[in-house]
Every structure is written in structure tokens, then in C-alpha cells.
Write a structure and sequence with these properties.
heterodimer, A: 0% helix, B: mainly beta, seven-stranded mixed beta sheet, 11 strands, 53% strand, globular
Chain lengths: 108, 119
């Protein structure tokens, strides 16, 4: 099973600032890495797939990079609605597809 | 617009079977390249894959749950289901259904169902 590690566990950021989140895989997942946003009481929302492709209706302040084992999600200028938990997910190796433990982005 | 609507009991007794259904609207469950997933999230914790199924009945389960889980697709009703047998308190979680399309990850999710295992 591929283990995903996310850092930091919590990121405190002021509105308008840039946020950079990291996801590392225990072995290569090629570019089959997705990022999700989850707010309290809601289902996860797909932000990016293929490491860097934005999903439908996702604003361009969200961007992703990386391949193999190291990936980054960048939020260029945090808006109030962006404070949430972010999960990475690998869908390269089954069984099973796995999620990282999440990074909570909160208001500084 | 693709929507997934979950239904099922929110309380299950230990050792019994948890059963949830996910009704799909705005999209045919038989569409080529699509598969149908279940994922769960214990209280205050992260996301755990349960498994997924193609419309033709080919299924893939998380090895940690394989012996207790069944995912089935009902093409006539355009819905899919999850059964987890012999539940314990460790199965208490929010359960989500979701669609995978082509080689992409889950892009459409149900609203989630909180299932508590308790006598």
C-alpha cells in the first residue's frame, strides 16, 4: 500500500497570502495524484487531478505541481472560502487508492 | 448535472450488516469508463477507500475490508449499493459514494451518510 505524507499538518495563513502544501508518496505514483478540499460537514471537493489539472469550476488561484513522489498544492492568494482541510490522493496503485492525512489551512 | 443521493440507516447494531444506497441522476451508471466508489471517514479522522465497482460488476475492494464488503450496481435503477457485514464500533464513520470517470479520481460525491454502530 502506498503511504502519503502531508506537511505541514496545520498551516496558518492570512487572507491574501500564498499557501504551499506538500504531499509525499512512499513510492512513485507517476502523475496520478489528486487534491481535494473538505470543509466541515461537507463531502470532499476535487480540486486538481493528474497532479496539475484543475477540475471543473476550480479557480486558477489553485495550482499543482510534481510527479513521482513529491507534489505541491499552491493557493496563490487565500480567500476566506479557502480555509479548509486539504487531502492528497494517489490513484496510481490499487489496492487500495490512498489518501494523505490532510493539511488544515486556518486563519492566522 | 450529475448528482449522487445517498440513503440508508444511520444506526446499526454491532454484528449486523450496514447497507447504503447511492442513487445516480443526470448520468447513466452504465456509461463506459465510469466506476462507482465508496469511501468512509471515521469521526475526526481522514478518508479511507472501501472499494469501487464498474457497471459490469467488476469490483475492487480494500484488502483490509474485503472479507466483509460487497459493492453492487443496479443498472435498472441507476444506483449502486454498499454492504458491510459484522460491523463493530470501528465501522462508525461518514460514508460517501462517489463517481470515478475515465482514469480520473472521484469527481462527483454524494452528500455523505453518518453511520453509528451501537447497541
Amino acid at each position: 500500500e502506498i503511504v502519503l505524507t502531508q506537511s505541514p499538518a496545520t498551516l496558518s495563513v492570512s487572507p491574501g497570502e500564498r499557501a504551499t502544501l506538500s504531499c509525499r508518496a512512499s513510492q512513485s505514483v507517476s502523475s496520478n495524484l489528486a487534491w481535494y478540499q473538505q470543509k466541515p460537514g461537507q463531502a470532499p471537493r476535487l480540486l486538481l487531478y493528474g497532479a496539475s489539472t484543475r477540475a471543473t469550476d476550480i479557480p486558477d488561484r489553485f495550482s499543482g505541481s510534481g510527479s513521482g513522489t513529491d507534489f505541491t498544492l499552491t493557493i496563490s492568494s487565500l480567500q476566506s472560502e479557502d480555509f479548509a482541510v486539504y487531502y492528497c490522493q494517489q490513484y496510481n496503485n490499487w489496492p487500495p487508492f490512498t489518501f494523505g492525512p490532510g493539511t488544515k489551512v486556518d486563519i492566522k | 448535472q450529475v448528482q449522487l443521493q445517498q440513503s440508508g440507516p444511520g444506526l446499526v447494531k454491532p454484528s449486523q450488516t450496514l447497507s447504503l444506497t447511492c442513487a445516480v441522476s443526470g448520468f447513466s451508471i452504465s456509461s463506459g469508463g465510469s466506476s462507482w466508489s465508496w469511501i468512509r471517514q471515521p469521526p475526526g479522522k481522514g478518508l479511507e477507500w472501501i472499494g469501487y465497482s464498474y457497471h459490469n460488476g467488476v469490483t475492487y475492494y480494500n484488502p483490509s475490508l474485503r472479507s466483509r464488503v460487497t459493492i453492487s450496481v443496479d443498472k435498472a435503477k441507476n444506483q449502486f449499493s454498499l454492504e458491510v457485514t459484522s460491523v463493530t464500533a470501528a465501522d462508525t464513520a461518514v460514508y460517501y459514494c462517489a463517481r470515478r470517470y475515465s482514469s480520473s479520481p472521484e469527481d462527483v460525491w454524494g452528500q455523505g451518510t453518518t453511520v453509528i454502530v451501537s447497541s
